[in-house]
């Protein structure tokens, strides 16, 4: 049975207006968040002890670091002309392409891919903790829903994954090969990949630049509520959508593929918004639910363009992997992150940023303008 058949009425078209009451924190959420911080700190300390350098507790390995521009579309309808997208304008952006694990693994351990976007020069009322900044971050993954519905369930998952940090990479490669076969069976039967299987190494071995990326959890979208997505738009990126990328035996094969692509090509992604039109079928507090496009499709609100460039270098890694952080709470009040997973990210991301800054002796700050990474 397809998703549309499960929904009794597909005539929901009026967007739900934002109201703080759409969020309903669990009574013990603060305790759960402290558990997440402690677990992520374990990952940080383990990788620091083994590698001598503080890295992210998730999405530690970067495969591409890009500079480009976000152009907000002109003539958007009122419900889409919200927050950052209220007026047509061109903004510089930094993009970081990554994979999920908190340790640096060979790319043959195939896990979900991330795209973190930092928009620079954004003015307006700010979220708490970013009052003096002029950036808006979007933290995206190549799947429409999060792997756990809420912080408590996510803590249980991350505790299990944390125990494997920096251990038995050979076993992880073997498990990944098995999980990819399991994923093929799941997709053949259900038509949709399983997020947990992908996280355990069952991500299909495809080119990351052909992926569509999603915020997975909702944000405030001005007067409304939405999820954000970024999808390939230029012919060169569309041509590698679902294209096979065999990186077995090539530890940094994904990075090599990204560098090779942007050595020859530029790229364009479409930025899209999916407005919440029904709180029952598009819940705020369950990030594991895919919001059905049958009742509210993703609609274009702008595009990101990237010129041919050196897509990864030691200098770029130093500037962005070590000198920047990406978090949904870097941004405008009009794009406040919503739901338990997003609320948890505020304190968890901040703790991880402070750990990296302290241990690496680096100042991590929000840029106020675009700068050359190669200087």
Q: Given this structure, which CATH class is correct? A: Mainly Beta
Strand content: 15-25%
Overall number of structural domains: 1
Shape: globular
Explain this structure.
By secondary structure, the chain is α+β, with helices and mostly antiparallel strands. The chain has one domain: Beta Barrel (Catalase HpII,  Chain A, domain 1). Helix content is 30%, strand content 18%. It contains nine helices and nine strands. The protein has helices spanning 3-6, 29-51, 151-162, 169-190, 195-199, 235-238, 253-264, 314-322, 340-360; strands spanning 61-72, 90-99, 113-120, 135-141, 213-214, 219-221, 224-232, 267-275, 299-306. Strands 1, 2, 3, 4, 5, 6, 7, 8 and 9 form a nine-stranded antiparallel sheet that branches. Strand 6 (219-221) and strand 7 (224-232) form a beta hairpin. Helix 2 (29-51) packs parallel to helix 9. It is globular, with a radius of gyration of 20 Å. The N and C termini lie far apart (56 Å).
């Amino acid at each position: 049975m397809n998703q549309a058949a499960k929904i009794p009425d597909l005539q929901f078209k009026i967007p739900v207006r934002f109201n703080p009451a759409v969020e309903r924190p669990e009574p013990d959420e603060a305790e759960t968040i402290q558990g997440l911080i402690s677990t992520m700190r374990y990952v940080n300390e383990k990788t620091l002890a083994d590698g001598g350098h503080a890295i992210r507790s998730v999405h530690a390995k970067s495969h591409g670091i890009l500079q480009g521009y976000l152009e907000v579309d002109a003539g958007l309808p009122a419900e889409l002309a919200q927050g950052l997208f209220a007026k047509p304008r061109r903004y510089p952006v930094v993009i970081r392409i990554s994979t999920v694990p908190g340790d640096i693994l060979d790319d043959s351990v195939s896990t979900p891919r991330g795209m973190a976007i930092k928009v620079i020069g954004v003015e307006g009322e700010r979220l708490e903790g970013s009052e003096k900044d002029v950036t808006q971050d979007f933290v995206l993954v190549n799947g429409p829903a999060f792997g756990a519905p809420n912080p408590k369930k996510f803590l249980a998952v991350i505790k299990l994954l944390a125990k494997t940090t920096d251990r038995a990479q050979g076993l992880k490669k073997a498990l990944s090969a098995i999980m990819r076969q399991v994923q093929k069976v799941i997709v053949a039967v259900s038509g949709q990949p399983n997020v947990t299987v992908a996280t355990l190494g069952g991500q299909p071995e495809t080119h990351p630049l052909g992926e569509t990326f999603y915020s997975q959890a909702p944000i405030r979208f001005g007067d409304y509520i939405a999820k954000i997505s970024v999808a390939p738009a230029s012919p060169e990126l569309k041509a590698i959508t679902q294209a096979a990328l065999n990186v077995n035996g090539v530890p940094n094969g994904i990075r090599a593929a990204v560098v090779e692509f942007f050595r020859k090509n530029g790229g364009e992604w479409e930025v899209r918004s999916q407005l919440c039109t029904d709180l029952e079928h598009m819940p705020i507090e369950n990030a594991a639910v895919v919001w059905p496009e049958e009742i509210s499709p993703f609609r274009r609100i702008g595009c990101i363009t990237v010129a041919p460039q050196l897509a990864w270098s030691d200098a770029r890694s130093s500037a962005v992997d070590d000198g920047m952080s990406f978090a949904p709470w870097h941004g405008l009040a009009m794009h406040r992150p919503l739901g338990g997973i997003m609320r948890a990210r505020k304190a968890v991301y901040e703790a991880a940023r402070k750990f990296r800054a302290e241990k690496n002796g680096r100042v991590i700050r929000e840029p106020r303008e675009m700068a050359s990474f190669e200087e």
